[in-house]
Specification:
- The protein is mainly alpha-helical.
- The protein contains 7 helices and no strands.
- The protein is elongated.
């Protein structure tokens, strides 16, 4: 990758390389400037592409996102390192199996699962040990008050 990995410059270069005109050719810098209706100048776009301008305003990000048909979040800086992402990556013995099965369910079933998970999490927070109840208390089915 370039020295601008993850920066506005690299993300912008990727768009110039990958987003094509209807005829399949790449957009020129002039076409992008003209397509942003005066929001960008050729000089400022060049500075963005070379990494000399690193903190464009939202109106510039919005104009570029609209031109290249991407979400404005595409340009947000990703400061978190790969190592940090690995530390916060969801883990657990059954995580992947839960994720795989949930992906096969419709929205209604996924909502039911989320509600069940919320309930379990709320009981974990209220337990002094932070865990799920040991099962020594009678369930609502056994004790219908």
């Amino acid at each position: 990758m370039t020295e601008y990995e993850g920066t506005i410059a690299e993300k912008l270069e990727k768009l110039f390389d990958e987003v094509r005109k209807p005829d399949g050719s790449k957009y020129t810098q002039t076409e992008v400037v003209e397509g942003t209706n005066g929001v960008l100048t050729r000089v400022y776009l060049w500075k963005l592409r070379k990494g000399h301008a690193t903190n464009p305003g939202f109106h510039i990000i919005k104009a570029l996102a609209d031109f290249f048909r991407v979400d404005t979040n595409y340009f947000s800086q990703d400061e978190e390192s790969t190592e940090e992402k690995e530390k916060t990556k969801p883990t657990g013995r059954y995580f992947e199996e839960i994720q795989t099965r949930a992906a096969k369910m419709d929205d209604k079933a996924q909502k039911v699962i989320l509600d069940m998970m919320d309930y379990i999490l709320s009981t974990q927070k209220s337990e002094p040990s932070g865990g799920i109840s040991s099962g020594t208390e009678p369930s609502s089915a056994e004790n219908p008050d």
